[in-house]
Amino acid sequence: MNKTAKNKLLFGHALIPFPLKIQNMKTLKVELKDRSYPIYIGEGNLSKLPELVKLFYPVKRFVLISDKNVFGHYGDVVTSSFQAAGLHVETVLVPPGEKSKSIDRYAYVLTQMLKTGVSRDWIVLALGGGVVGDLAGFVASSYMRGIPFIQIPTSLLAQVDSSVGGKTGINHPLAKNVIGAFYQPKIVWIDIAVLRTMESVEIVSGLAEVIKYGIIYSRDFFHFCEDNIKSLLSLKSQVCTEAISKCCDIKAKIVAQDEKETGIRAILNFGHTVGHAIEAVMNYQSIRHGEAVFWGMLAEAHMALKMGLLNEKEFDRIVALFHKIPLKTGINGVVFDDLMRAMRHDKKAKDNKLRFALPKSLGETVIEGVEDETLIFNAFNFARENGWKQH
Ligand SMILES: NC(=O)c1ccc[n+]([C@@H]2O[C@H](COP(=O)([O-])OP(=O)(O)OC[C@H]3O[C@@H](n4cnc5c(N)ncnc54)[C@H](O)[C@@H]3O)[C@@H](O)[C@H]2O)c1
Q: Which pLDDT score is estimated for 4?
């Protein structure tokens, strides 16, 4: 970027102040040189996206990828707002749920786009949770060698985590997220009002990633979660906006330092080495991603305790906060040997060692290679036996 373009960014053909401030919305930015992009967070702003898009891009045609559930709630609002702005929108829908992050569903979306005549001067709109965001982002990254996409995350998990940072992809039957690309969106557009139609189990699932930021990066934010857990669970506007902004801010800072996960970005994987394996063993069907991450964080925090990284007092604080979460899905059916097998397929495994992001203290994380299976076995048993609290 040259000097005149400082604090401005080229979007399509327009050089726009970066990030462009919008009234009544929080604005954050992910600084990645010419791939930088803004994150907007507001309430009741879902239909206002076309105004911003028109400023940024001379593009007239959009393909909206969503799941049938989310589209049922918000499809009309989004498509009619684009049409009212004189923009053309085609829609491709997939079934809700993790199973849509599959090779077959990916091929289906590409086929629909080809049949519709989508070309390189179209933009993909990803309207949905993390599943739609990951799938649509990967479609955008690979369709005709890449077309732009905009994230419109609608689940808590997607608003605090998956829509930011450019990890896109789908699952292979043998392992999660192993087919994909780092491909950044052009805009992340968050309306917290849409969270109100989510099922409470999905809110709980998203809260896993919220609390994760406190444990891995910010002791103050962990404290905020402890103080506001009830308001978070009941989606109180102000607390939600603050939490979502904080999470996006932390993620944006980490991604700006390490876009392709060669260093610090790996700390975001806390709870995910065990969590992803739980999802794989449970066939991606009977447990939600965030729920699996909760169990994974509990097990991995126990490993950190036993490795002498995390002290007992902080470990107890983590467990106490988890006990306030009304988790609905257990892991009693997961056999440890299956879990180990799934973990060995994990992309984080290196030199035959499993790699874990482990808390050293609240707000501080280290990456460790672990060979000791007994340590993992004990941690998994601890989570299974102590993670559950009746609500
Ligand atoms: N790319 C990343 O960096 C990243 C980070 C974390 C997680 N992920 C991925 O995200 C996925 C999980 O995301 P998720 O928890 O959002 O799952 P999801 O996309 O399946 O959404 C959960 C459910 O909530 C519904 N839903 C979403 N928004 C809604 C709304 N506003 N109102 C009513 N219903 C709504 C969906 O239809 C779905 O049934 C996993 O595949 C995970 O691997 C990716």
A: 42
